[in-house]
Amino acid sequence: MPRVFTIFWFDCEDFVTPESDDALKRLAEILKANKIRGVFKLVGEKLRALERRERWDVIEALKFHEIGYHTNYHSVHPTVAEYLKNIDFEEGISEFLRREGKGVEDIERLFGVKPSCYGQPGGAWAPQVYPALRKMGIPVYLDLTNIIALEGGPFWYCGILNILNLAPPKGGVIGLNFELGSPGFIEKAMKRYDGIYDLIRDWGIVSVYNHPCTLVTAEFWDAVNFSRGQNTPISMLKMPRLKPKHLVEEGYKDFEKFVRHVKAKPWVEFVTAQELYRLFKDKASERLYDKEEIAFLASNCRRISFQRLEDAYLSASEIFWLITASLAEYRIHGELPERVKNFYPLGPFRSIESEAFGTVKSKDILDEAYKARIFMESQGRIPDWIEIRNLRISPEDFLASEAELYVRLRKEEHPSSKRVQLVKADFQPFRYISPEGARDSWKWIVFPEGFEAWRLVELAKLQTWTMKPSRLEG
Ligand SMILES: [Zn+2]
C-alpha cells in the first residue's frame, strides 16, 4: 500500500495587516480541530507584530503546531537574494546568520523551540543559506522554487532535506491562497489532490501551502509596500485591500472542506517538517563502505553524479571523500583500506577550469589525495582545486583521475605503470540547477526591475556536489 505523506504549511509574513493575525489563528484552529499538526513558517517581524498587538491568543493557537522560519523581514530590502547576490560563499553564510539570526531567537524566546524548517521569501532562493541553516540547527528546507529540483522528489543538498517542487510519482504541490472562498475553486483543488494521490506508488509527499494573509486580503501586503525594490518607511506602510467579509468566511469553509477531504483518504499520513526529516534521515552518511563498494563507485566516475548502492545514495561529494580517503591511506600503507568511514563534505566554494591534462605520476595523485583528505577533514568541504606541479586541476577532473587510479590499484597492488592519465570529467549534477528557473524566480514583484543574480546560480551549481535523492528510511 502506498504511503501518501501530506504536509500543510503556511507562510506567515504579513506584519502590516492586523486582520491577517485572525486568519492565522483560524487556520491553526481548523487544523487542530481535525487533529492535524501544520507547519507555520514565521517571519520574525510578524511574530514581533503579534507581540506588539498582544495577540497572545494567536501565539497560543500556534503552540499546537510546528514552527518554521521565513526570514526576519521577508520583503524589506535588501531581501535575502539581494544581499547575497554579489558575495562569496563563506561571507554569505555569515551575512545570513547576522541578518536573520534575530527572528530565530524570537521564535526560541516565545515558543521554546528551534524552527524545524526554513523557506525563502518569494524568489529569493540562495545557496549560501544552506550551511547557515545547518549552523542554526534547522534541518529542512520547505518551500517552492524553480531554481533547484531533483526529479520531482525530496533531496539532500548541503546536508539539508529539501521539500520543494514535488511531482508525480513522488508527490505534488497544491497552493490554497487568494482563491479560497471563490466558487468552484476548492472542488478543483480537491480534484488535483486526488490526481496526485492516485499517481503515488510506494510513497510520495503532497505539499499543501497557504499564506494566511490571503484569506483576508485581496492583494499581497508586500506588493503594495515593497514592489520593484522600493522600501516604504515603516511609519508610512500602506494596508492592502481587504476581501469582503462573506468571502473571508467562505475561505475558511473551503479550507476545512479540503482538510476533511484529504483526511478521509485511506493512505494519507499527515506529517510535519520534523517528521519528514525523521522519516528520510540519511543513513548513508554514517556507515562504513568496503573496498568492493568503493571500487564500484570508482568504476562509474567518468560521468560524475550521485550514485546508488543497494541500500544507499551517495552524493558526488561523498564519493570524492571515499575515493580520496582510500588513496590517502594507500599513500601511507601501500595498500587500499578494507573499509572507509563515510563523510559528507560540502562542495567547493569557487569554480576553476583545469589547466592541464596529459599524464602525471601516480605518486603525485596520491600525494594530492593525502592533502585533500586533510583539507576536507579540517574545512568540511572539497578543495576549490588540486595543484599538481604548479598546475590547477578542478576537483571533478581530479576525482575522475583518482577513480582510474583506484580501479588500477585494486587490480594490481603495485602497478607496473607509474603514470596516470588526467581525465576530463563530465559533471552531471550541474543540471539540477536551472538558469531558466532562476530567471523565472527573479520576476518576483518585490525585486527591482531587471533583477539578476547569476553568481548565486554559479555558487548553487558548486554545491550540487552534495546533491542526492532522499530515501524513505522510517
Ligand atoms: Zn513569503
Protein traits:
474 residues; alpha/beta; TIM Barrel; 2 domains; 6-stranded parallel beta sheet; 5-stranded mixed beta sheet; 16 helices; 16% strand; binds zinc ion
Structure report:
There is one protein chain. This protein has helices spanning 19-33, 44-52, 56-62, 80-84, 89-111, 129-136, 185-199, 213-216, 245-263, 273-280, 291-298, 316-333, 362-379, 395-411, 435-441, 454-462; strands at residues 3-12, 39-42, 66-69, 117-118, 140-142, 155-157, 160-163, 171-175, 203-210, 268-270, 288-290, 303-304, 307-309, 312-314, 339-341, 358-361, 386-388, 391-393, 419-422, 426-427, 468-469. The chain folds into 2 domains: 3-281 and 435-469, Glycoside hydrolase/deacetylase (TIM Barrel), CATH 3.20.20; 288-429, no CATH class. The protein is built from 16 helices and 21 strands. Helix content is 40%, strand content 16%. By secondary structure, it is an alpha/beta fold. The strands form 7 sheets. Strands 1, 2, 3, 8, 9 and 10 form a 6-stranded parallel sheet that branches. It has a 5-stranded mixed sheet with strand order 4-5-7-6-21. A two-stranded antiparallel sheet has the order 11-15. Helix 2 packs parallel to helix 5. The model has no long low-confidence stretch (mean pLDDT 97). The structure holds zinc ion.
